[in-house]
Amino acid sequence: MFPDHDIFDAPDFQDTVFENSKSAILFHEDFLKHKIGNHPESPQRLVVMRNAILESGLGDSLDWVEPRMGEEADVLRCHTRAHYETIRKASEKAAEGGKDFIVWLDPDTGICAESYNAAMRAVGTSIQSVDMVLTEGYASVWGLVRPPGHHATPDRSMGFCLYNNAAIAAEYSRAVHKLERIMIVDYDLHHGNGTQEIFYSDPGVLYTSIHQSYHFPGTGHIDETGSEDGRGYTINFPVLAGSGDGEFALYFREVVAPVAEQFKPQLLIASVGFDAHTLDQLGFLKLSSQMYGKIVYILRAIASDLGIGLIYTLEGGYSLEAEAESIVESMKATVAEKFDPGELPMPFRPSQGSQAALDRLRKVLKGTWEI
Q: Model pTM greater than 0.85?
């Protein structure tokens, strides 16, 4: 049963003091050049987030860094060469077609002349974020990137995603920094099917996701827990339409935190989707802007307790108002020196359905994780 207190007043969180709040945002104008017509995944997403951070005054507490370009080898750790070439050649074809020409890989996912460069800059952002938290003393690094990545499988782009930025960061941390345990936490409206597929049989990368059930891309069921040596290292917590702050709080407190304590990752990667917000029209979840800040607080508390770095890579989010509000709340939590439970604007008890889902997840994971 869910504990009879506000989840963020729990003693193990409320007393957290962050000894290191050194944080950075990686952003590049190349991300604004990926333009695929009248599409929800638009450059304006990053413009409003950047402006909101600067107008809030929080930008002065963050280092703004121009990320490097990724390399072919970075992509090939997660994707096939054929997939890598598909994106590159599609951009070349779009350039040959002239201004505003778009190559559609599927009905949702388009490529313009600048898309390959934007995607490779997003790859570079992900691996540079890893370097910054592992070797440069940063506690947290945000990659304000597009195109997003968590739907990209080893051999396919889909759902607006070209290369899988979170997965590439994880593989880079293993190949270059020799890490052995990485945890990816995905809190987008949609399940990150690509990230799950890449690491489905791999016990070195624990992937966990909360997302709307019975929604695109149709994956992410509770009983999808991994295969072979990776069984138990994929953890899905689908929630019903209408779920909001209470259900997400339940997941982060009762699933993410205890699993992280047991797995003891050496790096924490967050795939951040602001499309779970109540104002976003692509789904039916009801997160508040303030809850996005609380999620950052709890991720920082986990990372601080484990003494590890935390990187964020941007996935979805298509309400400009919601993105502006949510990124500001996230940045407040990113630079804070102490955990702040604060107040949430919605009733803060999870639904019976989500509690039932948690009970089922406990049974599915029994013998691997104690939650």
A: yes
